[in-house]
Structures are given as structure tokens and as C-alpha cells.
Amino acid sequence: MNIALKEKIDIKEDILFKLNKELLEILLKDKSSGQNIIWAIDDYNIYGNNYAASDYITIESITGQNGEVIKPRIQKSNDTKVIRIREKAEVFTPSWVCNAQNNLVDNAWFDSNNIFNQETENGWETNNNKILFPMGKTWQDYVMSTRLEITCGEAPYLTSRYDTVTGEYIEPQDRIGLLDRKLRIISENIEDKDEWIDWAKKAVQNIYGYDWQGDNVLLARENILYSVIEYYKFVYNDTLSILMLKEFAEIISWNIWQMDGLRCVIPNSCKPIKKGQLELFSTTENFEECQGCKKNDIHNHTGVYCKIMDWNTNKPIKFVSLLKG
């Protein structure tokens, strides 16, 4: 396996394709529809046919152009950034802010402050001492704790491979994402490679994220996969097999998914439905709009409801079923 770990922030889809076609296919899969994720935005119309918002993102549509189709936000044009801010309220958060907010989560979990790092002005200093756990809690509890990043973009709260605002690459030992912290804990408590991989899978199973825009979903999935690759390389100076990468990718494709966060369905999938019968003397079928959209009822949409995997039972569930009311 020849992955350029210093490819910096832009993970080229051409490289993933050459590494293993099936791996890229997994990263493009939408588990809710059984198809691929869709573009869901019009940014890519400039590339011609098959790039409309409703079109599936395929291997053919993102490879063969030197990996220049899908780029991280920092490498997108200013015009594209402005449009996405205006139309989808897409604003990315600097890593130091992600760190401060993730620290709040860990402060509550550990009932103590400055566990992983000491915050500085617009930055942080990593605590290099082994993490100690409070009475009644173990490192395994921490790895198994569930975390969700809503409207995740490129998933900077889950993994801080790079600062999404400045584009600065962050070395594995200094990362502050929720998954990064789990991988650090695993590495501090496990020496055996196979056991590390097993616990890394559990760590990935317990982080979730969703986004509307198809390119962000793919970027987030790639970032999480590469975080595992890079941390394993950092700890063992070794590379993961293609089989292992596929297994991680399967987990990631379930846990990072495409969703309209207000409706819990695949973006733009709500459609009018036929009424029960034709009206007298009418020669055309009658349709009524999605009642979920009409009445703002999240449990009554006609769209494709998004599924995630319950890794405790190894059975998929509708994400909306987790919401009360």
C-alpha cells in the first residue's frame, strides 16, 4: 500500500481509486437508499452532465481529473464559499474553537479540566502525559462513549487532520478531534497491533456525523479514514491492509451520512404522493404535497428516512426514531 500520508489536507480520489476501487465505492455509498450519496448542491454544474444536485456522486465523476473535482473548503474558490455560506449557511470553525468546545465535553466527562491540552490564545499546548481516569470510569468507557457532530462539514470536531479555516496540517499527536482523543487513549493503553485495530473500530463506531452536501460527506468520510491510517502509522510506523481499510470504511459509511437535518431524510427526497382516488369526471391523477413538509412533522415525511447502524445490535435503525415527539 502506498498512501502519501503527507498529501496534507487534500485526499485525492484518484489515489484512493488506484489504491483500491472497492474502497472508494464504499466511501461513496449511501446506506439509506442503497445507492450513492448525491451532490445535493449545484456547485458542480460547471463540469457538465451528471453533476446536478439530484445526481449520484460516482467514481467516474470525481476521478480522472487529477483529483481536482472535490476539494476541501480551504481550496475552494471564494465565489463558491460565498454561495455556500449564503445558501447553506456553511461556516467552518477554526480548530482552536473546536478544541475549546470539545474540551467542555471532556471536562464534564472527566469532571476535571485540561485533560488533553491547555488552551492558549487561538491554539493549545498538548498534554503529553498519559491520561488518567477518574474513579469509576475506565479508558474503555471513554472509547465507547458516543459522540455526534451535526452538520459536520469536513468533520473538524471529529478529527482535526487540518485546520479547516487556515489549511494548516496537524500532526496526529497534537490533534484535538473527538475521534483523535479516542485513538490517543487506545494508543496509550494498548501495545498489540490487532487489539489496537479492534478498539479503533469501536472508536469509529461511536462517532457520528451528518451533512446535507455530498462533497462534505465524502470529505468527512475520507478524513476519518485517514485519521485512523495516520494514527496507526504514528504509533506503529506501519500501514493498515486493504482489508482493514475496507472494514473501517464500512463503519464510516454508516456513521457519516447524508441527511437533511430538519427532516431526517435524504436531501430533496420528499415528493408529492397520490391521493386515494380520482375526483369525479377527472382524467388526471391528484397529488398532495408531503404532509411532513406541510405540517412541519418530522415523523411524517414522504422522503427516504436516513438510517444509521446500531452497533450494539448490528442492526440499522432510522435516525428519526431516536428523536422524541
Task: Write up what this structure looks like.
The protein has about 325 residues and is an alpha/beta fold. It has 3 domains: about 15-85, no CATH class; about 95-260, no CATH class; about 275-320, no CATH class. The chain contains 11 helices and 9 strands. The strands form 4 sheets. Strands 3-4-5 form a 3-stranded parallel sheet. It has a two-stranded antiparallel ribbon with strand order 1-2. A hairpin with a 2-residue loop joins strand 1 and strand 2. The chain is globular and about 70 Å long. Mean pLDDT is about 90; it is low at about 1-5.
First-to-last CA distance = 49 Å
Q: What is the assembly state of the chains in this entry?
A: single chain
Give the tally of β-strands.
9
Share in β-strands: 5-15%
Tell me the number of structural domains: 3
Low-confidence stretches: 1-6
Give the C-alpha Rg. 21 Å
Question: What is the strand and helix layout of this fold?
Answer:
Layout: H1 13-19, H2 21-28, H3 59-62, H4 78-88, H5 95-110, E1 117-120, E2 123-126, H6 139-144, E3 147-149, H7 178-189, H8 193-205, E4 207-211, H9 214-236, H10 242-255, E5 256-258, E6 273-274, E7 287-288, H11 291-295, E8 307-310, E9 315-318
Parallel strand pairs: 3-4, 4-5
Antiparallel strand pairs: 1-2, 6-7, 8-9
